[in-house]
Amino acid sequence: MTSSGSREREIAIVGVAESDEMGTVPNKSSLQHHAEAAHNALADAGLSKNDVDGVFTAGFSTMATAEYLGIQPRFTDNTSVGGSSFVIHVAHAIAAIKAGYCEVALITHGQAGRSARGRVPGDPNLPVAQYEAPYGMVGQPINYALACSRYMHEYGEDRARQAMAEIAVSTRKWANLNPKAAMHDTPMTFDDYHDSRYVAWPFHLFDCCLVTDSGASIIVTTAERARACRKEPVWVLGAGEGHDHNLISMMPSLTSLIARETGPKAMAQAGISHDDIDLTMIYDSFTYTVMLTLESLGFCGPGEVADFVAGQRTAPGGDFPLNTNGGGLSYSHPGMYGSFLLVEAVRQLRGEAGDRQVHRKGTNDQNPQISLVNGTGGSLSSTGTVVLGTG
Q: Exposed, middle or buried: residue 283 (CB in 10 Å: 0-12, 13-18, 19+)?
């Protein structure tokens, strides 16, 4: 490791949890998933809702969420830039805590994404309604498929499909080790992947994330409060955020994410290099999201991801643990997923991941020490990157 080991630890994650039930839960509202996840994360930290003075969420009003939870916050943040929002909230919580606006920050998300499915009325005045929808750009599978087809044009369809299949199959293997995963009992072979129906060319069904009901919460606080909590703190070592477009048609490059900026920023703050990272958690709304993120974060060069993930390198037993909970592809994805990345990273760093537990690089028995978490939101639009560490 580089200089991160000697840096002062100031802000930590002290509690993480999902909602009680996940998958298809038709009898529970989005707010119930919020509340269950928040209750469980507070219990994980050894705190109560009366300790919380900062509330952070996206896709749902912080006023409604706080009211439902019975919390009157001193600070509130409703930043909503898609599924990356909750990763970005970690940096916002740090800023608020350091500025003295709050001391115990609750980041929470809940969504009855499957049971409450329905067409959301659109605003005809929004740019997407005016400039993209009339031409058939009406949903994320189509938007992401457009970007992926450009990648295939630039770097080769066969190589892209190779990478997509490797990612889908390896992620399912992790889900098979996670009792909470929607696809825990459903193995996937490469033939299963290639034989699955198309959703939006070039995406097969298994290139696309799940749609589930679920929630997840994270508790962020000061070093002083952290050391009095129930479990060992997981420290936030670095963070970066940004977005460079809204409409997919305005994306500067369909084959490069703004993670190319947020990743190096977060890693520089943490004082680490790629070689220091024991676990990588990447938002996998689609297999293409993972491909593009790995390249944009600098784990490999443009067009090189097929070689990087070849041979099930990212699967259990491989030397690059990736999305060890089963990801949005095979574990859970209620509509926005970034909070779940953080939950799994913290559990792995604590050594709480059970059959899917990974280890520090070069060891067979030590818990991982450094995890990089990267969330993506919108139409490949926004990115939040954080580096987490122990000790």
A: buried
Token readout for 298 is: 């600098």
* Residue 180: how many other CB atoms lie within 10 Å: 16
Distance in angstroms (rounded) separating the CA atoms of residues 243 and 241: 7
Q: Which domains does the chain have, with CATH numbers?
A: 3-116+208-389 (3.40.47.10)
Q: What pLDDT, on a 0 to 100 scale, did the predictor assign at position 4?
A: 44
List pLDDT tens digits, range 185-199.
999 999 999 999 999
Give the residue numbers annotated as catalytic, written as ranges: 283, 331
Percent of the chain with pLDDT over 90: 90
3-state secondary structure of 85: helix
Rounded CA-CA distance 372/264 in Å is 11
Closest CA to 388 of 280, 288, 295, 307: 280
**Side-chain half-sphere exposure of 25, counting CA atoms within 13 A:** 23
C-beta of residue 325 within 8 angstroms of C-beta of residue 174: yes
- Write down the H helix ranges in the chain: 30-45, 62-69, 85-98, 127-131, 140-155, 157-175, 190-195, 223-226, 259-270, 287-296, 305-309, 327-330, 338-350
Structure tokens at 384: 């939040």
Rounded to whole angstroms, the Cα distance separating 191 from 328 reads 21
Q: Find out whether the peptide bond into 202 is cis, omega within 30 degrees of 0.
A: yes
Q: What does the pLDDT average to over 269-274?
A: 97
Position 126 confidence tier, pLDDT thresholds 50, 70, 90: confident
Q: In the 8-state DSSP scheme, what is residue 371? A: E
Within 10 angstroms of residue 53's Cβ, the number of other Cβ atoms is 19
What is the rounded CA–CA span in Å between residue 188 and residue 322? 17
